[in-house]
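queue> holo job accepted (iron/sulfur cluster)
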Amino acid sequence: MTGDRRSYESVFIVIAVSKEIGKIIKRLISEGFTEGRDFIRRSDLSPVTPSIDISGICNLRCLACPRSDTLHPFENGGFISVADYEKVVKKLLQELPMLHIIALYIWGDPFLHPKLPELLKINSDLGVGSDISTNLNVQTERLEEIIKANPTYIRLSCSGFGSKNYEVTHAGAKWDIFYKNCVELSRLLKKYNPTTGVELYFHINKANISEYKDIADMARRLGFRTVACISLLFPQYAMMFDENIPLPEPAERAKELMLISMEDMLSAAKSEAKKPCQIKNAFPNINWDLSVLTCCNFNQDRLADNFLETNIDELIKLKNSSKLCKKCVAHSMHRYYDIPKYNSHYIKELLLEKYNMPSYI
Ligand SMILES: C[S@@+](CC[C@H](N)C(=O)[O-])C[C@H]1O[C@@H](n2cnc3c(N)ncnc32)[C@H](O)[C@@H]1O
Ligand code: SF4
Ligand code: SF4
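queue> job finished
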């Protein structure tokens, strides 16, 4: 596209791809197009992002994640069957026809699912994108099939460069396996050139912040985007902290490693208490056994036993009257997850000013 916006008076653009969307938007704006008036993203047509926890198990015991807490019944988890998965996606598309993407994770690791490539194929055959987040600490022979199935996004979760810090916070993980899989993933991206956007999602804490530059350099070498976030105690633990309920020992260690103290995080969240829930569009959240979570931030409270037997209007009604949401809002946990005060601009300035590290964010 060349020339200025006036040459395209009657054009209205829907950006249907996700890869390099930032570059596309920048280009459109530089040509005089305005978001909303002249172009929209596909996600604007369907702001809801459902998630399906295809793997009800995880191979790790990360300190900050309530999944690791033995109080919770995850040891008995399992995998969604291909047949159930297909039924779930078809029902979602019937009820949310403009749906553009589904997250294939909540509290487990999607790369553990033995039929992940088949699940991805179901999504692409039905015209809906797939969002995956993984610890990539799996011995996977399926990586090639996964890349060939062209998921929309893959997030690689990481909390260090090298074993020293990474293996503490990603408890049970091995840096060598993570690194080897990253290199293999990079090779496959070059070989198949899928439209998949891959990001290395770095959970910054007090111990690993000095490793940020190394991780960002590694990501750049391998062709991944780096996204940094403040490493958090998950909201389920944060609410316990706010209620003065003692945390399990691993969560206590994760809290001590946090770059921003829990007190400061909560006070920033409470200053936003009147604002709406940040994740209200992350809905519905369906477990591997078809039960439906009230919220993806809390792993025990359920709205329904079987998604396939409960229509979406009923789920919305149940959610709107849920005790969990009321309690969560009373503790300002609905504003805790992505606090504007500690967002990417904050991280960028912190890296540059305090650590003299150029940000790659
Ligand atoms: C519960 S995990 C499930 C998916 C997968 N097991 C993983 O870890 O990527 C969901 C999301 O939480 C993020 N996460 C894990 N620990 C975190 C932490 N300490 N701070 C912020 N986000 C974290 C992960 O990066 C992931 O995208
Ligand atoms: S953060 Fe992900 S990898 Fe870590 S324990 Fe939780 S579900 Fe597993
Ligand atoms: S109000 Fe709280 S519990 Fe309800 S959806 Fe939002 S974050 Fe989840």
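queue> The radius of gyration is 21 Å.
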